[in-house]
Amino acid sequence: MAALGWLTPRRRSATARSVLAGEASAEAARKSSQEVEEASGTAAEPAFPVLGDDRAAAFFDLDNTVMQGAALFHFGRGLYKRKFFETRDLAKFAWQQAWFRLAGVEDPEHMQEARDSALSIVKGHRVAELQSIGEEIYDEYMAERIWPGTRALAQAHLDAGQKVWLVTAAPVEIATVIARRLGLTGALGTVAESVDGVYTGKLVGEPLHGPAKAEAVRALAAAEGLDLGRCAAYSDSHNDIPMLSLVGHPYAINPDSKLRKHARRLEWRLRDYRTGRKAAKVGIPAAAGVGAVAGGTAAAIALHRRRR
Description:
The protein is α/β, with parallel strands linked by helices and 308 residues long. It is built from twelve helices and eight strands. Strands 3-2-1-6-7-8 form a six-stranded parallel sheet, with helices on both faces. The longest helix has 24 residues, at 16-39. The protein is globular, with a radius of gyration of 21 Å.
C-alpha cells in the first residue's frame, strides 16, 4: 500500500516543526514497510508519478473523468440563464444531459446535436465575451461537479513537477477555463472558428474526439519534448482507447463497460469514484441518476405548464 500514499491529500498543521515531525514519521514508516516487503521477497510497486521527471506529463479527459456530466451541457445551462437561446433549446440540452449521465457513455448523435446547437448559439458573439461568461458558469455549475479523486490524481502529477493537460471534445475556451481554475497546465479542445474575435458558427476541422485526441496528444508531446512511454492518460470512455494506448501509464477512470473490459484485459489501472451498485452499471453516482431523472421530469412539467 506504500505506493498509494501519494493519493492521500496532505494536511498542513500550524507550525513548521510539526510538519517536519509528521513528514519524518511518515518517511520512517514508508521505509520500514519497504524493508518488510523486501525481506518477504515481495517487491514494492515503483512510486508513480516519478518526482522530477520533466519528460513525463499527464493527459485527462474531461467529461465523466474530471467532472460529472458533460461540460458542454453545463455551459448551455449557463447560456440559457443569460438568455442566449429559448426554452425549447434548454429542454433539448436538459434531455441530452440526463441521457448522458444515465447512460454514462457518449452517443455520437447526441454529441453532434449538442455541438451544432452550441455553434448556432454562439454565432455572432465575441470570443472574449464567451470566455468571461465561461468563468461565471464554472462557478455556477461545474465547480461542484469535479471528482475529488480525479483532482487528486492530477495534483499528484503537478506536485511531481509534471505538466497536466485536459484533452476534451468540449470547446477549447471552456476547457481552458476549467484547466486554469483547477491549476492545470492547459487544455486541448475543439476549436470554433472566429474572425476578428467573433464566432462564425463553424468549426476549425473536426471535434477533438476519439482518434483526434490521440493525434493531439502525440503532437503536443512532440512539441514539448515528452516521452509518451513515461506519460499517463486518464479517461472514462472506450472512445479514448486510442489516447490511452499512446502512453505508458493508462488509467480507466469511472470507466464505461467497454473500457472496463478492455482495461482489465490489458491490466491497465482502474479508479472508480462513483458510489453504489447502480453506478457500476450505468456510470454515474446513484444520487446523481435520481437527480437527473427528477430534473428532467421537473423540466418537462414546467414546459407543459408554460405551453398551457
